[in-house]
């Protein structure tokens, strides 16, 4: 192994380091997603607006709900940690596998970047579809969500200054929704309870900790 590593050029060492790191993180994320423990796969950007872009990021949790949750975190938001991992996964493996087929380093890097970007968007579209299939279930959100408990997935600004995201369990399924609060800012991982359903994809929540007297 040491002899093989020493025989590589500097560029190939960098490519292998990027690729193996991205592959390891991807495997860990996948395992956490399917056991429902992946709550921090995205950048937690508190801008007062929804930093991840589109609706619930669920690339995020049970075999079916793992697809939904995973689609939210990696599939539906562009600037997420998971999508960076997907990009480097596609970029790295493409560069390594095509190294002998494309002698030009510049062309190899361009092709690898294109493949990396394409992989990100393919995964986004796949999990957007899986997420929409999950959301198309027969859950009556207005009747089922109020009183449900869960945790904050992306920070929720205080006093409805912006929206964040929460994961709640409805009918034994973990689902993710936009969320606002009337109280203080709720950081990622905070335990919450649904107070009101504002719309088909937005909930009003409050911290469970503040309910303890």
Q: Could you say which structural class the secondary elements and strand pairing correspond to?
A: alpha+beta
Discrete helix count: 6
Please write the string of helix (H) and strand (E) elements: HHHHHHEEEEE
Mean pLDDT: 74
Domain unit count: 2
Helix content: 40-55%
Question: Care to describe what's here?
Answer:
Helix 2 (10-34) packs across helix 4 (81-97). Strand 4 and strand 5 (202-207) form a beta hairpin. The protein is an alpha+beta fold. The chain has a five-stranded mixed barrel. The chain is built from six helices and five strands. The model is unreliable at 38-76 (pLDDT under 50). The termini are far apart.
List keywords for this structure.
213 residues, alpha+beta, OB fold (Dihydrolipoamide Acetyltransferase, E2P), 2 domains, 5-stranded mixed beta barrel, 5 strands
Give the topology, please.
Layout lengths: L1 H6 L2 H25 L28 H14 L4 H17 L7 H31 L5 H4 L4 E6 L9 E7 L2 E9 L9 E9 L2 E6 L6
Helix pairs in contact: 2-4, 3-5, 4-5
Write a brief structural summary:
The chain is α+β, with helices and mostly antiparallel strands and 213 residues long. 46% of the residues lie in helices and 17% in strands. Strands 1-2-3-5-4 form a 5-stranded mixed β-barrel.
């Amino acid at each position: 192994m040491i002899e093989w590593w020493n025989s590589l050029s500097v560029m190939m060492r960098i490519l292998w380091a990027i690729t193996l790191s991205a592959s390891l993180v991807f495997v860990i994320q996948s395992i956490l997603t399917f056991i429902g423990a992946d709550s921090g796969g995205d950048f937690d950007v508190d801008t007062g607006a929804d930093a991840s872009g589109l609706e619930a990021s669920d690339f995020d949790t049970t075999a079916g709900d793992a697809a939904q949750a995973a689609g939210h975190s990696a599939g539906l938001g562009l600037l997420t940690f998971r999508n960076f991992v997907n990009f480097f996964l596609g970029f790295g493996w493409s560069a390594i596998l095509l190294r002998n087929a494309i002698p030009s380093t510049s062309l190899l890097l361009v092709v690898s970047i294109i493949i990396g970007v394409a992989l990100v968007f393919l995964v986004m579209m796949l999990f957007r579809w899986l997420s929409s299939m999950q959301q198309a279930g027969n859950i009556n959100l207005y009747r089922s969500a109020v009183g449900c408990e869960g945790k904050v997935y992306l920070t929720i600004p205080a006093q409805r200054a912006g929206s964040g995201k929460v994961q709640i369990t409805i009918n034994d399924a973990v689902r993710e929704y936009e969320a606002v609060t009337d109280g203080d800012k709720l950081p990622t991982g905070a335990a919450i309870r649904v107070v009101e359903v504002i719309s088909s994809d937005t909930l009003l929540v409050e911290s469970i900790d503040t309910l303890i007297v």
